[in-house]
Amino acid sequence: SQQGEEDPQALSIQEGENATMNCSYKTSINNLQWYRQNSGRGLVHLILIRSNEREKHSGRLRVTLDTSKKSSSLLITASRAADTASYFCATDAGASGNTPLVFGKGTRLSVIA
Amino acid sequence: GAVVSQHPSWVICKSGTSVKIECRSLDFQATTMFWYRQFPKQSLMLMATSNEGSKATYEQGVEKDKFLINHASLTLSTLTVTSAHPEDSSFYICSARALDRTVSIDEQFFGPGTRLTVL
Predict the structure, then answer these.
(1) Is residue B54 less than 8 Å (CB to CB) from chain A?
(2) Nearest to residue B17, comparing CAs of B76, B102, B89?
(3) Of chain A's two ends, which shows fewer C-beta atoms within 10 Å, N or C?
(4) CA distance A36 to chain B (A)
């Protein structure tokens, strides 16, 4: 399965600043999801945005989706040291129950207190 | 929310031995489970799709005879790494999609992962 690209690969910001991560993908999708992963730990599902949606909010998270450009962005506002983690986008190409998620390469975010 | 468990959470074994990893959906049924592998500082790579009652579908480059997958019930899939070698050391993560709408069918629910270290 081909992975999408995420940029930046690594991002270091000060606490309180906003963090923006971008994701591009290659195929048509049913939905796109963002996950967080702390070092050596499992995945935490953050947000799901469907192909017919353009923007979605959840707390300090804002996700946009541009299907014409095959890209998505994740914005974390007012970042905290606890937001330090790797963030992955994952695309779901099918509406059936047997399609896997295809993960991007991820962005490693460091929030410095 | 839906819960997927994995067992064991970590395992250390000697080269040449086989290791079995279990993936269970605890509060929903899943006809399809997925196995991913993640090397340090890399993303998740899909290894195989596990279908209840039928053979697994492996991604290109994944040896089906080395990574045996059994999906014997609607709540359990197992991955057996046979004749493990140090290069098989990795973080193995399973996920499951719900069979019906008792939980979200859009989401995949991920297990916490299994850290395999082969000496």
Answers:
(1) no
(2) B89
(3) C
(4) 11
